[in-house]
Amino acid sequence: MTIAAPQRLTGGRRIDISQLIVWGIGGLLLTIVFLGSILTLRAGHYSAAQWRDFIVFGIAQGAIYALIALGYTMVYGVLRMINFAHGEVFMSGAMTTFFLADYLNRSGFLKSHPWVSLIAMLLFSGLVSMTVAVLVERIAYRPLRGAPRLVPLITAVGASFFLQYTFRGLFGSGVRAYPAIPVLQGKLWVFQKTQIAVFVGVLITLVLLVLFLQRTRAGLAIRAVAEDREAAALMGVDVDRAIVTTFAVGGFMAGIAGVLYALVFIQVQFFMGFLPGIKAFTAAVLGGIGNLPGAAVGGLVLGVIESIGPSLFFDGYGIRAAHQLKDVIAFTILVLILIFRPTGLLGERLGGEERL
Amino acid sequence: MIVHTVRRAVFIGLVTGIAAWHLSLVGLIPAFAQRRLVGDTVTFSYALLVTLLVLAAYATGRRYPGATQRIPWGMLSALSAGLMFFLLALVLTHLNLRQILLNATPELARVLTFGSGATIVGLVRVLLISLLSGLFTGALSALPYPWGRVIVSAALMTLLLGLLRDVLGPLLPRGVTSFLYGPAGLSLAGALVVFLLAAALFALRWSRRANGVTARAAAAVPSTFRQPVTRAVLLLILASVPFWAGLFLSNVADFVGFYILMGLGLNLVLGFAGLLDLGYVAFFAVGAYTMAVLTSPEVGQRFTLDFWVALPIAVVATVFAGLLVGLPVLRMRGDYLAIATLGFGEIVRLLVLSDWLKPYLGGAQGVTRIARPNIASWRIDSPQEFYFLILVSCLFAWFLSIRLRDSRLGRAWFAIREDEHVAQAMGINRVTAKLSAFAIGASFGGLSGALFASLVGSVVPASFSLLVSINVVALLVLGGMGSLPGVLVGALALVGIPELLREFQEYRLLLYGMVLIAMMLFRPAGLFPERIHRRELEEAVEEAREIAPAEIATGRG
């Protein structure tokens, strides 16, 4: 599946110094993490209930990452490119839906019909993100299909910043707070009710996605294009349409993720897409890019590690304000996974041989 | 057929209209409503709107061969775009959207209708201007070859001079300033003079170029003599900047210099070796923080080093940082490389920001009291004095870039950029080539960072965000990846102009995003493309001349 020949020209399996150094650094980091965890657990600053809350929060966050990660992974499956602007697609839904939520809240509809409002918000956000994703594909990616890899990557970075600062220009740079949804306040057993809403929302979306991909003709076309674009085209699949559908579906899920994110974290602003975007990408690679269950698993794993990591890994060393290092952990995982296991935990599922 | 043509023209007009809506609602067009270019009436906003109309007409017309078709279809397209302007103005006057859209003000409606508001008069005015723009564009494209370009370039020059009034005004002799510039923007007579002068210059240049190879071959002998003179003059002008530019301009020039240094550094990695590094800011940060920690009494071991001792240490530290980033990403494919380097950049910023490393790196408050350099008893203190240091660094980096480009290593980078596997098959050592690109590229960034820290006197984590990396990538893409003059042009356009015009500051990143997309779509090689191809052509000419000088002289080379 991979093109192994060029590797062999430089000596194949021969270990070179550079790889040795890299593995050394990796081993060092693992040792630090391992020792830190042991020290933390022995010190016992945190109760079992606290750890449980960390994990629950991590799963809720990870579920949202998973939804965004699916968009990355699907686009990668059909186009072999990272849609760098996907984080901004997520942001655009959440930002725009704020105004709907605000309107519903002020008109009192949110209080009288909370579920209807919630569904309306989810659908609206999904549609906005879907539109943005399709537009990005149409303007920034489609004309450049077949160009060298660097070219669409640069437009993707450009699209990302263009979208961020467009939304900043349209709606301002301030932080907006979503209205609280009355039925989702309080706790149910160990879960916040919003967390339950997130789990349910993500699960339903995932089931719908699987049904769409497995049971519809459009889903079949997407799978065919992911498997082998040229063969699919020869079999009469409209490749462009399949690609747009992929962007649309990925965008829709990102929009839903946007509202769910806003339910948990309340605040939205124009820059909110960057970190979740990168983390969702990490999740997608963690699970094996192009691999749908992998994206879901990767999201959950990343969410949990990120949630318990700062306390577990660093508390034992007595590091001050370990929670500030949360994103450092996420980025380190990103870099490590790209270095040591770019095919992810569950393996890549790419059809062709375009691996470099 | 005709239905199709009409539909195409109207479609282009509508898309242009939507672009205008976007620019209006994100605030770019209202922000420039106060910036007058010519006389009392022509503001930069109007210039932008007219540019959009012209673009619509151009995009529609360029498919057709003659002016008889270009003019009507271009006018139709501009007309539909103008209608879109008016439509937005109408919506803005009758609906209050300000709760949601920040810039949806009645003032914007006035700007969109060229000053009259959403009334019948405004409608007539918009449509008239649209029609004229379409007519003008069509007529322009009907002119014989260089004249269309000459007029457009001269118009752009006039626009630029109008924009830079506040900067250029104080620099020029008083008589010239009071003639060229009015209370805001160019005076009418000034605009005319600037336009004609620019047109004459451009005409001269293009007519020479239009004469083609013969002229160049004939000029080949004197050009070897002329070039050093041009260079010396350029160098003199560059070296004299602090003497005629004020504090503000020198400061801007310093910042452009920092970005040129970083651009030259990233150019080695992205332009020459084709590796997209989105975490370049990490090297800038390493350089700056090394300088800060070594020379500031506030953090670390509380010892202080002299600037001149700390500077090489900072550069060496960034070389190691470059190796540290380069080693693990050696085997990565293009897009993973971009994300991994981005991750490195963010890790550096987050670590610097954290309370954990605060005793050593200053945390969110950063580090202040960074040393300034001394040369004997002369203390380099002001931005004007610093300029020389930055200029020397830039020249050095420039020289190094040229030498590297023409070296064996440079060729190896090009080969890797074009096809990594083939390059390896040809016997190029991927590990050394890539690592040296990262290490040398990083050292330029580190030098830039160290100088930056010393000039500003303090470092804070906020100066080292991802946006710096994006800025450097954007300036490379604009100028042309791999092109050295491109770095200069890119830095002047994307760092210099936004620093000079405060209205641009807010929209800087929006602009970068547009630049990245538009350049890749329309001109992927950049404004000043790499000279490799051209030089190879010239070498071929040279060779041919040695064999058969007569043929070249008669223009058949």
Written account of the structure:
- The complex is a heterodimer of chains A (356) and B (557).
- Chain A has 356 residues and is an all-alpha fold.
- Chain A has one domain: Orthogonal Bundle (ABC transporter involved in vitamin B12 uptake, BtuC), CATH 1.10.3470.
- Helix content of chain A is 73%, strand content 2%.
- In chain A, the strands form two sheets. A two-stranded antiparallel ribbon of chain A has the order 1-4.
- In chain A, strand 2 and strand 3 form a beta hairpin.
- In chain A, helix 9 packs across helix 11 and helix 12 runs parallel beside helix 14.
- The longest helix of chain A has 32 residues.
- The termini of chain A are close together.
- By secondary structure, chain B is mainly α.
- Chain B folds into five domains: 142 residues, no CATH class; 60 residues, no CATH class; 28 residues; 281 residues, ABC transporter involved in vitamin B12 uptake, BtuC (Orthogonal Bundle), CATH 1.10.3470; 28 residues.
- Helix content of chain B is 75%, strand content 2%.
- A two-stranded antiparallel ribbon of chain B has the order 1-2. In chain B, strands 3-4 form a two-stranded antiparallel ribbon.
- The longest helix of chain B is centred in the middle third of the chain and has 32 residues.
- The two termini of chain B are 44 Å apart.
- The C terminus of chain B is likely disordered.
- Classes of the chains: A mainly alpha (356), B mainly alpha (557).
- The interface between A and B is large, with 61 and 62 residues.
In short:
Chain A is mostly helical and 356 residues long. Chain A contains 14 helices and four strands.
Question: Which architecture of the largest domain in chain B does the CATH hierarchy give at level 2?
Answer: Orthogonal Bundle
Number of strands of chain A: 4
Please bin the fraction of helical residues of chain A. over 70%
Distance between the termini of chain B: 44 Å
- Model regions low in confidence, pLDDT < 50 over at least 5 residues of chain A: 1-12, 351-356
Please state the average pLDDT score of chain B. 82
Helix/strand class of chain B: mainly alpha
Number of domains of chain B: 5
**Distance between the terminal alpha carbons of chain A, to the nearest Å?**
11 Å
CATH topology of the largest domain in chain B: ABC transporter involved in vitamin B12 uptake, BtuC
Radius of gyration of chain A: 21 Å
